[in-house]
């Protein structure tokens, strides 16, 4: 078997192959439903209905998409520069901790929201800065260090919630005190359960897009990602670009945790994120690392999660079907994208 | 201080260190084989989960223990085949595919577990491997309980490490696998298939990772829990770097790491443990792995073609 590059891939190939990947994922979903003893078409229908079938469901999907847009952007920004930040989960919790630290009375309105958001971004950036400095200074691979820091951060959160940050009125539950009213993100429309974190996520996607397409930094990040040696040879400050990328990526991931606490939950507990940091990788890859695409794929991924939860209660297919489908979609999609640029020649 | 000496002189501490090292040795050997052939396998964490699950499920359904180990290995090899197909002939990003395989293997395990046992609240137990009771050897003071009252799977881990070292460094096959990770074009010039060697290495390596996972359910805990692998796969990747891609050094690293892990568990029970929050002790293994990576960063002899996809005729 050999792979021949295609000079100018046809439009049919560019649209057809990703569409095929999506169809293949749907086929896997139906197969899994069959294995679980449910009606495949009914299962798909229940997932769709659970995700967007009512006003309540659709709002739930938008709420679930909010942290995923942030972590998806964080991963997209980093991966574009070939900086393998697999630590969005840790950076997310750094932002969540800051939301509690500054939102439980340390600051008052009108300063509390903007200041705590900025400090949260700074905290997330710092969490990623360690592994990136280790990479640029000592050549330590950032994949493993960012992964390992996720576990360290979760233990740190667990320590905070059982120690200094524990809510005295929490009936012994390991959770933080509630945020003051001024530190909470208000709802976008009164009466609808959707907070300003969602709007902030959309604005962030737009800003990242502007940075990537309209600024020198964006150009440098892409150049460093495409060919690090060539970028260095061209006189680009590669390490400085990687550090800036890390600050942006870590800051975006931190906003995911910050907006979950300030917008949705109102307090910190150690189950704040069901793996939003890791799912951000799927969101970013499905979006081809495009910041505006991230918004679309985050909505899609959130819909699968919310829909599967509701389907699981009705049809008895385990809710982990969502994670299986997204992992399958990721693998099918990277394969399909490669095949748009290469032709398989059997010989 | 005397607490520390008491721990270091106790039989149970050394026995625990070797027990904790066993799954790490299997999985580290698996990762080492993959990386020696030129493929970073980030599927390791999920493949350990599916190994832990498949081994446990087989035994829970009535299979003998060794058949459980075989089932784990088969499941691991299946996901290894998926990883190898996508990263070797298709040359896709080893980072992305590896993380995808970890997510798929993990969610498949959880999905299958919930499907098989929808209503259970406390995980059912199986009868795990029993400690071996060897005549004479097990009765030697100190050494007996430390070395000769381990389970058969621990011994299998040590034998496996020896075997991996022998095959990689003393056989033509091992030479070819290592060459595939150093200079694939030269391998192809010898008339050998880089694709075949790399795929074989990833499939066999993934099988070993899954056996490492099955140690957790079949020898250590006797039940399957979600999150039970808990980063052990990532730690094994650090151990491969720490061992400079050499089986002997990697085993030493795993034993050192496990001794430290056994120590932190015991230190929690001492007056020191009363002063420090327990999370500090639990963080230690992860921080130690990062420290190991930093220490080895200058000296590591990374396989030259690691993470470089090979395309025939391309340079």
Brief summary of the model shown:
The complex is a heterodimer of chains A (about 350) and B (about 325). By secondary structure, chain A is an all-alpha fold.
Q: Could you characterize the architecture of this molecule?
A:
The complex is a heterodimer of chains A (347) and B (315). Chain A has 347 residues and is an all-alpha fold. Chain A is 72% helix and 2% strand. A two-stranded antiparallel sheet of chain A has the order 1-2. In chain A, helix 2 crosses helix 3 (55-80), helix 4 packs antiparallel against helix 5 and helix 5 runs antiparallel to helix 6 (142-162). The model of chain A has no long low-confidence stretch (mean pLDDT 93). Chain B has 315 residues and is mainly alpha-helical. Chain B is globular. The termini of chain B are far apart. The model of chain B has no long low-confidence stretch (mean pLDDT 91). At the A-B interface, helix 6, helix 11 and helix 13 of A face helix 5, helix 11 and helix 14 of B.
SSE blueprint and pairings:
The complex is a heterodimer of chains A (347) and B (315).
Chain A: E1 2-5, H1 11-35, H2 40-52, H3 55-80, H4 88-103, H5 112-138, H6 142-162, H7 196-214, H8 216-226, H9 228-233, H10 238-265, H11 276-286, H12 291-315, H13 321-341, E2 342-345
Antiparallel strand pairs in A: 1-2
Chain B: H1 2-8, H2 11-36, H3 44-60, H4 65-87, H5 94-116, H6 143-147, H7 152-170, H8 172-182, H9 184-189, H10 194-220, H11 232-242, H12 247-267, H13 271-275, H14 278-296
Keywords:
heterodimer, A: 347 residues, mainly alpha, two-stranded antiparallel ribbon, 2% strand, globular, B: 315 residues, ABC transporter involved in vitamin B12 uptake, BtuC, 14 helices, 70% helix
Largest interface: A-B, 47 and 47 residues
Number of helices of chain B: 14
Instruction: Specify the CATH architecture of chain B.
Output: Orthogonal Bundle
Number of strands of chain B: 0
Distance N to C terminus of chain A = 6 Å
Q: What percent of residues of chain B adopt helix (DSSP H or I)?
A: 55-70%
- Name the structural class of chain B: mainly alpha
CATH H-tier superfamily of chain B: ABC transporter involved in vitamin B12 uptake, BtuC
Task: Provide the spatial order of strands within the biggest beta sheet of chain A.
Answer: 1-2
Overall geometric form of chain B: globular
Biggest β-sheet of chain B, characterized? none
Radius of gyration computed on alpha carbons of chain B? 20 Å
Low-confidence stretches of chain B: none
């Amino acid at each position: 078997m050999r792979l021949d590059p295609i000079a100018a891939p046809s439009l049919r190939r560019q649209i057809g192959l990703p569409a095929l990947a999506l169809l293949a994922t749907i086929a896997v979903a139906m197969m899994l439903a069959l294995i679980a003893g449910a009606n495949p078409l009914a299962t798909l229908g229940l997932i769709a209905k659970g995700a967007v079938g009512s006003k309540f469901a659709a709002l739930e999907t938008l709420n679930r998409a909010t942290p995923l847009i942030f972590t998806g952007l964080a991963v997209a920004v980093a991966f574009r520069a070939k900086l393998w930040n697999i630590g969005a989960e840790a950076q997310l919790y750094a932002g969540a901790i800051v939301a509690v630290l500054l939102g439980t009375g340390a600051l008052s309105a009108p300063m509390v929201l903007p200041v705590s958001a900025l400090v949260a971004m700074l905290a997330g950036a710092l969490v990623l800065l360690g592994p990136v400095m280790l990479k640029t200074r000592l050549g330590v691979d950032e994949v493993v260090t960012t992964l390992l820091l996720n576990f360290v951060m979760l233990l740190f959160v667990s320590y905070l919630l059982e120690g200094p940050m524990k809510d005295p009125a929490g009936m012994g539950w390991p959770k933080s005190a509630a945020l003051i009213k001024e530190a909470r993100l208000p709802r976008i429309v009164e009466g609808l359960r959707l907070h300003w974190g969602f709007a902030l996520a959309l604005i962030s996607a737009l800003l990242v897009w502007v940075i990537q397409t309209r600024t020198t930094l964006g150009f440098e990040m892409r150049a460093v990602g495409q060919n690090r040696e060539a970028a260095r040879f061209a006189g680009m400050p590669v390490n400085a670009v990687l550090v800036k990328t890390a600050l942006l990526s870590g800051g975006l991931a931190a906003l995911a945790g910050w907006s979950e606490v300030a917008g949705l939950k109102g307090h910190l507990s150690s189950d704040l994120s069901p793996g939003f940091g890791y799912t951000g990788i799927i969101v970013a890859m499905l979006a081809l690392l495009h910041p505006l695409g991230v918004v679309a794929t985050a909505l899609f991924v959130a819909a699968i999660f919310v829909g599967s939860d509701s389907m699981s209660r009705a049809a008895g297919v385990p809710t982990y079907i969502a994670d299986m489908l997204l992992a399958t979609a990721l693998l099918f999609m990277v394969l399909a994208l490669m095949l748009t640029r290469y032709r398989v020649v059997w010989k | 201080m005397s607490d520390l000496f008491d721990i270091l002189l106790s039989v149970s501490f050394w026995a625990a260190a070797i027990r904790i090292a066993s799954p790490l040795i299997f999985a580290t050997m698996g990762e080492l084989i993959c990386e020696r052939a030129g493929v970073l396998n980030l599927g390791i964490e999920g493949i350990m989960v599916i190994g832990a699950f498949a081994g446990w499920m087989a035994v829970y359904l009535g299979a003998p223990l060794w058949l459980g180990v075989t089932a784990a290995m088969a499941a691991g090899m299946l996901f290894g085949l998926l990883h190898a197909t996508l990263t070797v002939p298709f040359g896709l990003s080893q980072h992305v595919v590896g993380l995808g395989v970890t997510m798929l293997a993990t969610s498949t395990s959880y999905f299958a577990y919930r499907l098989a046992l929808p209503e259970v609240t406390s995980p059912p137990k199986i009868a795990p491997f029993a400690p071996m009771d060897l005549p004479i050897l097990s009765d030697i003071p100190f050494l007996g309980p430390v070395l000769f009252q381990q389970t058969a799977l621990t011994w299998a881990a040590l034998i496996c490490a020896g075997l991996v070292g022998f095959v990689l460094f003393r056989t033509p096959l091992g030479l070819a696998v290592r060459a595939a990770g150093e200079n694939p074009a030269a391998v192809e010039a010898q008339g050998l298939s880089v694709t075949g060697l790399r795929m074989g290495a990833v499939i066999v390596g993934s099988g070993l990772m899954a056996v490492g996972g099955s140690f957790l359910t079949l020898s250590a805990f006797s039940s399957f829990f979600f999150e039970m692998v808990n980063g052990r796969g990532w730690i094994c990747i650090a151990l491969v770097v720490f061992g400079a891609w050499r089986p002997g050094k990697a085993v030493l690293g795993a034993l050192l790491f496990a001794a430290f892990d056994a120590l932190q568990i015991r230190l929690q029970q001492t007056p020191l443990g009363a002063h420090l929050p327990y999370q500090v002790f639990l963080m230690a293994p992860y921080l130690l792995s990062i420290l190991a990576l930093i220490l080895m960063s200058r000296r590591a002899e990374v396989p030259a073609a690691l993470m470089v996809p090979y395309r025939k005729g391309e340079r």
